[in-house]
Structures are given as C-alpha cells and as structure tokens.
Amino acid sequence: MNTQTYKNIVMDEKSMFWAFSAIIFFSAIFYMYCVTSTIHNVVARERLETKNSDLALSIGQKEFDLIGLKNEITIARAENLGFKEVAQKTFITRQSVSFVSRTESEI
Asked: How many CB atoms lie within 10 A of CB 46?
C-alpha cells in the first residue's frame, strides 16, 4: 500500500469519526430538548388541571349560594323590600305573524 492511499484512508476515517461525533452530539442535544419540552408540558397540564378543579369547585359553591338565596325569597321579604302585589294582571298571548316586513337599511 502506498503512502497516498494510506493518507486517504486515514483522512476518510477522521472525517467519518467527526461526522458521527457531530451526529451523536446533535442527537443528544435534540433528545435533551425533547425531554425538557415534555417536562414543561406535563407541568403546565398539571397546573391547568388544578386551576380547572379550583374553578369547578368555585362554580359549584356559587350555584349552591344561588340556590340558598332563591330559597330565602318570600312574599313577606319582597313586601319589606318595597315590592307590591299587582292589582290588575295583563297576560300577553302569542300570535302567529302572517307577513314579514323589511326596512331598506336591512340588506
């Protein structure tokens, strides 16, 4: 084997070593990025689930308070607040409309 062929083989081996080293390095960096991103997403999801359960609990408490307030309304309390019984009651019936009107500004 002559020296020129030996130098070419050594150069090819060196370039392959550095190419594979670069591939391994960038693969390790990409793997660390993916793991870090996954951890951040899991933490964010847990925070959102906690906030969601807190909001659901708050809504349930407000609904319970609303039911309690509705149960406190009586005729005597309404009269104490100044409301009065209506002497003449008027009922409105629903009638079908047989035509449709349109103004010029509606298009």
From this structure: 10
